[in-house]
């Protein structure tokens, strides 16, 4: 009885302290997340130096990466059209050098919406007399690089109305597995990931700065968006996550190493990508098992196969709900869609 009484007295003294400590840890974690993008308010562009020559801009739609150096500025994605001027102001606060390149990771409006304004504010690096040969306009804007499918989705067949103005379209497309360039003393790889979030996804690897820009293949704020209508598949998306893991290197026994800028959310390292990849792989495997057992989409929805991950990635409302994710995964594994499965 005496032990029980002493233990209760101990709890009365310790529990309030533990509660305060827990709240303090939670507040610190929330502050750190806010500093790294999870809670960045849309409509105000904030700048974070990631490492090396690479910065992240948040608050203008999708996350934007900026590499700045003596050769000029290279951007990965441009945010929404409404935020173009604020994005330009943020870039100018990092560097007053010309914007030379824009790389698009997909054709989503929150990734390419600022292309027209920001490309027009830049200038192409042109050798020889190429500008004089083809007209002064050749050097009047930044080069916009993307996988060929991105141009297909941003433009339109002859006689049809394009979803984006011509000034926003990619001017340098590729159809190979990757495109390489050397800029600001740094090798840069643009790696196409087939049929992931869409059929035009690319990830960008800054070798010297040791930063990967993942686009919407990897996000920290929701389940991955599998855009079936744009050729996305869950297996292709997992291939993309696996590729990110393969090219990133952690620091032994601590956080850091290669840093990863997600399409939305905070800056991450390899461990964060692995956690996400494992969660999505487990969910994919559960769906495959349910499909093998003959469950319908309605039965899979009722089975709550994502229940343990919903508190972290799920949503009951908004642009990408848990139900939308479940439906997309099921259809991705059972039906053929544009771009193949």
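-> sequence recovered:
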């Amino acid at each position: 009885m005496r032990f029980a009484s002493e233990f209760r007295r101990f709890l009365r003294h310790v529990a309030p302290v533990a509660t305060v400590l827990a709240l303090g840890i939670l507040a610190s974690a929330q502050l750190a997340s806010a500093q790294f993008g999870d809670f960045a308010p849309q409509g105000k562009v904030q700048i974070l130096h990631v490492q090396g020559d690479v910065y992240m801009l948040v608050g203008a739609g999708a996350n934007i990466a900026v590499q700045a150096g003596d050769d000029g500025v290279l951007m990965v994605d441009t945010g929404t059209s409404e935020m173009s001027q604020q994005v330009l102001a943020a870039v100018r606060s990092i560097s007053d050098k010309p914007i030379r390149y824009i790389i698009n990771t997909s054709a989503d409006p929150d990734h390419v919406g600022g292309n027209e304004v920001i490309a027009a504010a830049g200038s192409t690096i042109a050798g020889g007399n190429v500008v004089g040969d083809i007209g002064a306009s050749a050097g009047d804007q930044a080069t916009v690089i993307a996988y060929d499918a991105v141009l297909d989705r941003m433009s339109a067949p002859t006689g049809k109305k394009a979803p984006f103005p011509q000034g926003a379209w990619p001017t340098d497309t590729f159809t190979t597995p990757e495109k390489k360039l050397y800029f600001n003393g740094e090798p840069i790889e643009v790696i196409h990931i087939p049929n992931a979030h869409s059929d035009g996804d690319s990830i960008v690897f800054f070798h010297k700065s040791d930063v990967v820009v993942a686009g919407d293949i990897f996000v920290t704020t929701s389940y991955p968006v599998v855009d079936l209508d744009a050729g996305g598949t869950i297996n292709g998306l997992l291939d993309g996550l696996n590729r990110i893991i393969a090219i990133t290197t952690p620091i032994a026994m601590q956080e850091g190493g290669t840093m990863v800028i997600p399409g939305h959310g905070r800056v991450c390292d390899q461990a964060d990508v692995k956690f996400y990849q494992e969660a999505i792989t487990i969910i994919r495997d559960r769906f495959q098992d349910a499909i093998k057992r003959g469950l319908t989409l309605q039965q899979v929805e009722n089975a709550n196969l994502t229940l343990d991950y919903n508190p972290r990635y799920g949503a009951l409302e908004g642009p990408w709900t848990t139900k939308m994710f479940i439906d997309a995964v099921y259809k991705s594994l059972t039906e053929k869609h544009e771009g193949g499965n």
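The domain at 40-275 is CATH 3.60.15.10 (Metallo-beta-lactamase; Chain A).
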